[in-house]
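Backbones bend. To wit:
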Amino acid sequence: MQSRAIVAALLLLTAAAHANTTVCVRQTDGHTSDQPPAPVVVCQKLFPSPPFVHLPPDQRPAGGQATLYGVVELDINNDLHIANARFYDRDLHLYSLVNTAGKPIDETSELMKKNHLPSNRVHFLIYEATGKLATATTLQLTGLRPAILVEGQALDARFLGPWEGLVSKRRTATQWYVDPSQPADFAKIRIDFAEPLVATEAIGELRPTPKLADGKRFKVTGTFENGTHPVRLSTGECAPALTSYGAANPMPERVATSDYMLRMWRFPAMHTLWSKDFHIVFDYPKGLYTSATAMASEHNFRLKDYIATSTHPQQLVFRLHGNPVDQIVFVLKPVTGGGGSCKP
């Protein structure tokens, strides 16, 4: 009973401390699902432009104990050893995390253990870090706690809206062009990602299981706006219907036009346990492949990009995961404006 009372008191104190702190458009005071639960501000809806999450102010007294808000990323070996621990602040300034003796922080650190690290919690928790700035790139860590929990639905809502770019034309019934620098080999495409967001598997603690209760993920469905009819792009150009390309249509006949859609989602720890091994993927239109996933390895949808003022729409190149040869390529970027019918 006494321990429960202490936890409840901590939650109330944190709620009071953050009562006047607006970190997201919609937020609430809450706690993590860990045991014991950690008090946090729960971000339920992002700001529409960067920084998508507004962090509390940092404290950087000259020669004193600094308090910084930001994102932790870890290089984790298969034996769960933390080879490197890093901290990104809102300016994406990168600090190596060391202990008071100047040794790199690893899984034996009491601060890591207290925060249930190493784990994929770093993909949805924003931390308050305290310590001495030993150098311009080193933080001598004396305190670490989760401050903000960004819900999966808030993270994944960033996929919503129109995306435009290019998609491979077909060379043959089973082969596509693959070099986006050759525009004649690609068709312009506009895809509208719209609600509802559909819940999918939660993020695993480190490996696929066990799951993290706070690591919810959602798939966002995008419909090809110029699948069967021309559409106006955000640039003012008129993108022809994909079906107008005949045998070069990126979508072969086995894909019904009613299935001209993608489902985009986040995929951390795809190949390794490292935090930066984090990809944006999508499910291909039904019938295109028997079982396959498209992957973009270069993107700006890691948690650090949600706190940065420098985040801007970025072009993502999606290729078939694995070792594809002559398979379809999508080059997509979020845009504003455009839409509506037109004549090519």
Q: What stands out?
A: Residues 2-150 form one domain. The radius of gyration is 22 Å.
